[in-house]
Amino acid sequence: MASQHYHELLLLSTLLFVFISLSTQSHETLVFPVRKDPTTLQYITGIYQRTPLVPVKLLVDIGSGFMWVNCENHYISSSYRPAQCNSKECALAESFTCNTCNDSPRPNCNNNTCGLFPENSIINLSTTGDVIDDVVLFRSIHGNFATVPHFLFSCGSNNLMEGLASGVQGVAGFGRTKIGIPTQLSSVFNIHPQFALCLSSSPSSNGFIFVGNGGNYKLAPGIDVSSSLMRTPLIINPVSTGGVSFEGETSPEYFIGVSSIKIDGKAMKINTTLLEIDDEGVGGTKISTVTPFTIMERSIYKAVTRAFIKAAEAKKMKSVASVKPFKTCFSSESIKSTRVGPDVPIIDLVLGSEDVYWRVFGANSMVEVKEKEVVCLGLVDGGLSPRTSIVIGGLQLENNFLEFDLGVMLYPPTSLPEFLNRMRWRLTWHFLISF
Ligand SMILES: *[C@@H]1O[C@H](CO)[C@@H](O)[C@H](O)[C@H]1NC(C)=O
Ligand SMILES: *[C@@H]1O[C@H](CO)[C@@H](O)[C@H](O)[C@H]1NC(C)=O
Ligand SMILES: *[C@@H]1O[C@H](CO)[C@@H](O)[C@H](O)[C@H]1NC(C)=O
Questions:
Q1: Which UniProt keywords apply (predicted)?
Q2: Topology agreement, domain 24-212 and domain 237-401
Q3: Cα 53–Cα 55–Cα 57 angle in degrees, nearest 5
Q4: Cβ distance 186 to 151 under 8 Å?
Q5: Residue of the CA atom closest to atom 12 of ligand 2
Q6: Residue located nearest, by CA, to atom 9 of ligand 1
Q7: How far is residue 392's CA from residue 397's CA, in Å, rounded to a whole number?
Q8: What confidence tens digit (pLDDT) does each residue in 257-287 have?
């Protein structure tokens, strides 16, 4: 079983970076190149927007419900339009506010314009911002650009730029809302509302996000990734996890149902209440591109590290002093290296049933501290009562192929309340582990 899995890994490893001949037929597939910023470990993408067009760098936040850009830093455009309160655009944005501004009109300063609360999730800061639309250019998988004349987004301000990687002017939100990037693009191009994420661990090579394509990814002739993906439902957190939210607002973030954790095949005891999302939206497991390392609630963190250390001893790995922010570190000399990273105990996140698991090999669990010849378990203690018990972060996502299928078209709704009532989420999250 394990060896078969390994074989699959090797097969795909060669192919993944030959990326990617999609079987697109006539459907549009959009691609966002993503690069890891070596200083902040943030994942950065870029678009072109406005008239005249300018390039804009954005932080990739798959849990953010919409795109926002800084409108206070030379946002000059002849094509921008504020979204008028009570308009169709404001309904799509699910805005509950109507802004005014006592100054000369410009992006983020208009009367009778609905607003949202753009958030910088690196520093946990939200402000108010107008909803506007403007020309946005996206890259098409066919090599050309696809223009969206009226792409809806919100306006951030200078004080929301703190903590973002150098040159970044906003956030690319791939969250599950009607104006999130996947759903908005699926509506404009009449493509399946889904996106696939493949982050690169190296700042010198691109990762990608694909939007569209209905689940057919061919890495090379004859190799269809979609057939080898494991699937698990996406879970909707009934309570928004955002900085500012309204009663009844669900979370735009992507949660999955981790039911147990195994180290080298052995399940450990953890408080399963923490793995469930309660009525207040607390608990559960989410996927985050703005967290560099997986964060676990303290009792889970302790159970995992304890079991990991025990399994490491069996492998004759030599413990050494910790290197912040990590606590569990080993001497590099005592660990062999393999195609899937350092040869350390394997962590499985079991997803509901025993045969569905997210397998984490050394490349995705360990952080090398080269100067000290040390490798550390790349997990962070989330303290005693975090809002979300497990936040799966960047290191664990890298070199994995994750497809988020939003299942049904959300937009344009025929009649909003009726549409929402009969909306059924066929949310399937598939993943493929490859390296
Ligand atoms: C908004 O309306 C007020 C009152 O009519 C006016 O003084 C102000 O200039 C307007 N603001 C903009 C941005 O047009
Ligand atoms: C932001 O909030 C998250 C989750 O509550 C927390 O883990 C993180 O440390 C916070 N970041 C800052 C800079 O306060
Ligand atoms: C399990 O976690 C829940 C939620 O934090 C807590 O209320 C409960 O007391 C915990 N149970 C045990 C046995 O620690």
A1: Hydrolase
A2: yes
A3: 145
A4: no
A5: 123
A6: 102
A7: 7
A8: 899 999 999 999 999 999 999 999 999 999 9
pLDDT at residue 413 greater than cutoff 60: no
In this structure, which topology does domain 24-212 adopt according to CATH? Cathepsin D, subunit A; domain 1 (2.40.70)
Q: What are phi and psi of 245, to 5 degrees?
A: -150, 165
What are phi and psi for residue 117, nearest 5 degrees?
-125, 80
Nearest CA to ligand 2 atom 14: 123
Q: 397 vs 67, 159, 286, CA distance in Å?
A: 22, 30, 12
Q: How far apart are CA 287 and CA 193, in angstroms?
A: 18
Q: Ligand 2, closest atom to CA 387?
A: 5
Cβ neighbours of residue 327 under 8 Å, at least 6 residues apart? 305, 376, 377, 381
- Ligand 2, pocket residues at CB < 6 Å: 123-124, 387
Atom index in ligand 1 nearest the CA of residue 109 equals 13
What's the token pair of residue 152?
């809806």
Q: Write down the pLDDT at residue 227.
A: 57
Q: Which of 81, 99, 103, 111 to mutate to test the pocket of ligand 1 (most atoms within 8 A of CB)?
A: 111
Q: Which amino acid is at 302?
A: K
pLDDT reported for residue 431: 33
Please give the model's pTM, rounded to 2 decimal places. Answer: 0.88
The answer to whether 274 and 389 are in contact (CB under 8 A) is yes
- The number of the ligand nearest the C-alpha atom of 393 reads 2
- Does the beta carbon of 113 lie inside 6 Å of ligand 1? no
Burial 201-232 (b: 16+ CB within 10 A, else e): beeeebbbbbbbbbbbbbbeeebebbeebeeb
Q: Is 102 touching ligand 1 by the criterion CB < 6 Å?
A: yes
Spans of all domains in the chain: 24-212, 237-401
How many whole angstroms separate alpha carbon 98 and alpha carbon 131? 10
In this model, does residue 11 exceed pLDDT 70?
no
Distance CA(398)–CA(378), nearest Å, equals 13
Q: Which ligand is nearest to the CA of 108?
A: 1
Please tell me the residue having the least CA distance from ligand 3 atom 12.
271
Beta partners for residue 404, in sequence order: 195, 429
Q: Which two tokens stand for residue 125?
A: 């800061």
